[in-house]
Structure formats: C-alpha cells, structure tokens
C-alpha cells in the first residue's frame, strides 16, 4: 500500500528536495505541500495523507500550533506527524510530543533516513532518537517534577507493564528492554501495545511524556 505524504515547510527548496526523494520510493507518494501551518491544515483536510512532514518554525502558523490543532480531536484515521527540525535539540521538542507528534527528523537527513522515517511513523511506531529523549528528560528536569498529579490510570497496568513503561521512558529500545528483562523482544512489544491501549496513548513519545508527567520516572533516575 502506498504511503501518502504532505510536506509542510516554508522553504521551497526543502519541499522540492524532500518531494523528489520521497517520490523516488516505490511505496511513497507526495500528495501535496504547503508553505505554512494554516495552509497545511487546509491541504491535509483536503488530501487526507498518512504522514505529514511538518516544519517547526513557519510564518502565519508554526508547526507546533498546526500539529496541536490537527491532532486535538483526531480519531484513529488521523495522519502521523513527523516534525522537521534544523537541530535535534529543538526548543519545541517537549510541546510537540505533547501535541501528538510521532517523532523528529533533521532537515539534513539522507534519502534513506527520510524514507525510513516516513515508513516508521506510517506503521504506527515513533521516531525518537536518544538525543531527543535526553532533551525531553532535561525539559522535565527544568520544569521541576510531575505536571499531572493523578496516577490513577497507572493502576490499570500490571507490574510488568509498569516496569516496561518506566524503561521506555528512560529511552531504552524494545530490544534493550528485552535484554534487561530477559524476555523476547516480541513480548516487550506486546506489553507496550497493552500499555498504550490501557492508558489511551497514541505512541512512544506520548508514553514517555505521560511517564514523566505522573512521576513514574524522574530526571536523574
């Protein structure tokens, strides 16, 4: 099945370059593009893509606000949003993940990195590099502790699921968690799928945000 993409970026060269690279892939099609967040929302509503490449800094409406509006009341058919940044330690990392972005991609990504990133988020996974995870942890440290007082939803998780969530929040991959717990990687994926379902979360970035907000893990743990 072809993955349909909309590129939202105020730089024409970025839109053109990414468009050429993605259209060269047999399983990816660039359905449209936009030069700012407001135009992007209109194009996304019209074209209904699977993945949106969304620049962070744009005129009229930035990518953060556009992502927030796009995903605020989104259902299961909402597109996945991959934020485009010049630096992977972008100031907007935390807010973008809270808004529902599925990950981050540097604008100097290679053709392979770009197409792989689109496939990853289209499949429902998240693209969150270790550096972005460290940035997220640093932001929680700056904010000074949990932002959401209620841990009630955590009670729905089993002890093992809680353990898996804590390790995810520390930035470990499924393979690393499997090694730590001495279980199969597929078992970790199954646990994590149940965690998302029970907590009503979309993906890995949202799970990390949730774990820090309720104080399940804290910076420096």
Number of domains: 2
The CATH architecture of the largest domain can be given as 3-Layer(aba) Sandwich
Shape, please?
Answer: globular
Number of helices: 10
Strand order of the largest sheet: 2-1-3-4-5
Tell me the strand percentage band. 5-15%
CATH homologous superfamily of the largest domain - what is it?
Answer: Response regulator
Structural write-up:
The chain has 221 residues and is of the alpha/beta class. The protein folds into 2 domains: 3-127, Response regulator (Rossmann fold, 3-Layer(aba) Sandwich); 146-213, Orthogonal Bundle (Arc Repressor Mutant, subunit A). Helices cover 49% and strands 13% of the residues. It has helices at 12-23, 37-47, 63-71, 93-99, 111-122, 130-143, 159-169, 174-181, 185-199, 204-213, and strands at residues 3-8, 28-34, 51-55, 80-85, 103-106. Strands 2-1-3-4-5 form a 5-stranded parallel sheet, sandwiched between helices. Helix 7 (159-169) packs across helix 10 (204-213) and helix 8 packs across helix 9. The mean pLDDT is 83.
